[in-house]
Amino acid sequence: MEAEMTEFTINPRRGLVVWVYSLKQLKNLKRYGLVHYVSRKMKYVYMYLDEAGYEENVAKIERLHFVRSVEPSYRPDVEMNFADKIGTRAAYQMDEDGFEVEELSTHIRLAEDV
């Protein structure tokens, strides 16, 4: 028997924070993407949407009557390559001389002497 080899493809996703008035309509949000976290106290839902139809789905979610506001995740826009910063002087922002430590004279005063 030959086992069918299916190729696993990773769909690029983007996070979305949806602030809601009520969590009763949580099932309606599940049709737009994967609901990752629900905060019942602060009334927000963190969900992931596919990058392909992201803008259209965000516009649809914003029009729902129970949605207060929508905040996109900016993580895909931020450069996450820190390899050139690790272990270099730019990471520590040091001068050529290094750090200078200045000792100050300190006097210990007891509460009785004050």
Report the portion of residues in β strands.
15-25%
Read across the widest sheet, the strand sequence of neighbours is 2-3-1-4
Count the E strands: 4
Q: Specify Rg, calculated over alpha carbons.
A: 26 Å
Question: Per CATH, which architecture of the domain at 13-77?
Answer: 2-Layer Sandwich
- Going by CATH, what is the homologous superfamily of the domain at 13-77? Peptidase S8 propeptide/proteinase inhibitor I9
Biggest sheet record: 4 strands, antiparallel
Q: And the CATH topology of the domain at 13-77? A: Alpha-Beta Plaits
Poorly predicted tracts of residues: none
Helix and strand content put the structural class at: alpha+beta
Average pLDDT, all residues:
82
Task: Count every helix, treating DSSP H or I runs of 4 or more residues as helices.
Answer: 3
The helical percent reads 10-25%
Question: What is the first-to-last residue Cα distance?
Answer: 92 Å
Keywords: Cytoplasm
Organism: Enterococcus diestrammenae
Family: Belongs to the UPF0298 family.
Protein name: UPF0298 protein BAU18_001429
